[in-house]
From TrEMBL:
<dbReference type="Pfam" id="PF25598">
    <property type="entry name" value="ARM_PUB"/>
</dbReference>
<feature type="domain" description="DUF7032">
    <location>
        <begin position="5"/>
        <end position="114"/>
    </location>
</feature>
<dbReference type="InterPro" id="IPR000225">
    <property type="entry name" value="Armadillo"/>
</dbReference>
<feature type="repeat" description="ARM">
    <location>
        <begin position="305"/>
        <end position="347"/>
    </location>
</feature>
<dbReference type="InterPro" id="IPR054296">
    <property type="entry name" value="DUF7032"/>
</dbReference>
<dbReference type="InterPro" id="IPR058678">
    <property type="entry name" value="ARM_PUB"/>
</dbReference>
<feature type="domain" description="U-box">
    <location>
        <begin position="139"/>
        <end position="354"/>
    </location>
</feature>
<dbReference type="InterPro" id="IPR011989">
    <property type="entry name" value="ARM-like"/>
</dbReference>
<keyword id="KW-0677">Repeat</keyword>
<feature type="repeat" description="ARM">
    <location>
        <begin position="262"/>
        <end position="306"/>
    </location>
</feature>
<dbReference type="Pfam" id="PF23005">
    <property type="entry name" value="DUF7032"/>
</dbReference>
<protein>
    <submittedName>
        <fullName>Vacuolar protein 8-like isoform X1</fullName>
    </submittedName>
</protein>
<dbReference type="InterPro" id="IPR016024">
    <property type="entry name" value="ARM-type_fold"/>
</dbReference>
Amino acid sequence: MCSLRQAIEVISSLISYSHPIKVFSVKWQLIRNKLEELCSSLTALENCDSIQNPILSGMISAIVASASDCYDLARRCVDLSYNGKLLMQSDLDVMVAKFERHVKNLFGICTTGILTQGFAIVVSRPGVNACKDDMRFYIRDLLTRMKIGDLEMKRQALLNLYDVVVEDDKYVKILVEVGDIVNILVSLLDSVELEIQQEAAKVVSVISGFDSYKSVLIGAGIIGPLIRVLESGSEISKEGAARSLQKLTENSENAWSVSAYGGVTALLKICTSVDSRTALVCPACGILRNLVGVDEIKSFMIEEGAVPALIKLARSKDEAVQLSSIEFLQNIASVDDSVRQLVAREGGIRALVRVFDPKSACSSESREMALRAIENLCFSSTVYIIMLMNYGFMDQLLFFLRNGDVSVQELALKAVFRLCGKSEETKKAMGDAGFMSELVKFVDAKSFEVREMAAVALSSLVSVPKNRKRFVQDDRNVGFLLQLLDQEEANSGSKKLLISILLSLTSCNSGRKKIASSGYLKNIEKLAEAEVSDAKRLVRKLSTNRFRSILNVIWHS
């Protein structure tokens, strides 16, 4: 009776012998794949006592007998001494089927409990600089344990597999190359043993992070099992499944599969459950966000109550949940006015304003996200802008323009810049709130982009007569602008912006008088002579009968 060691040697020898064969190469590659699976499985069983396990001993004998028959076929292919191609093709197909049967039988007898942790040798993990063959052998050994080991062996194999794929990307590539391991992982997601399921979900989550291998997972039918885990798995399993689905749905082609397996309903259930943890809710929101690009799925989400559910999450005290839900709301309503109306009706705009509120305990990142969402959802409609004003948004925006962190302050300035291009009523409200005196300060900023936004916004606000009068009432405002204009280091771009604001102020009598009597008129005249844009127009506006004759020399020369 053959020992395990003899069987392994016979199969290894047969694999080596078959490599030089030039004919029927596809068939022989299939045979080698099956032989490698057998070899890996038998190696893992090497210290299992075949005398104490007669069923296993009989299996080993059958495998060796099949290997002997295969040797004969290999010899004839090497010598080209076979009788007819069709007959040899048929014989090789039979051999592939035999080895496939041996693999399945070996799996079957070992899952009945013949193989346990006590019987199996432990293959050491390869070192840091191990060659690919050693890494491949280790992965094959883990595959064998996942296929034919008892519960504890499967669990330990999955733990070891997770460790190597997290620490070294090369193992992920080898894992995908080794036949059957992805299929085994997919099947383990449906395991009734929660420990096995959650460890498999963790490994799949790592693999799904590689764009090159997402198609392999999809091809193995991963979507259905992942959705089933979301529906009935443990919390840890659900978190792993959600992370995987979030990565896989970055490709919109996979959106329909998620929907077809009931994924949208499962995800919304997670988002509305008070028991769901942050680590699960955030990727669930991310998956839903990835799916809204498909109109039919978006409509279904809305029918199932996604908008009020995610608005509720936006009120959460958990920063990560806040960010994920606000990003979803922004995506689902970005190009759809009917959804924006729904967000407004369900209290979404008020919720965003509360997140942005300086009195709230929200982080800077949450405030920035809320402000971006407010811009995208509200700034295109006068109705929503009025709603924002009623909620106190203008005061909040002014606060962060004065006191915000650099990142929030910059976003606030951009929001102000956009709002200044809206209705006359909006501009009046901003003038009344005190935005103009703050914008003046930004006109002297180091960044040209900031100076430009502030100047354009200020120019837009002072185009409103009421705002012009308010602005020039404070002598410091006009004086500061003229002082900046007089600075030698001010570049031509800054001067053009300043002149544009001053030009707007000349539409007001008091503004025109303050500029004309300020002592900076000669500087403005020099700019006009230098052909600086709009400087001549400014001088014309400032001209009076008293000095018009002096200026005629400039204009008619």
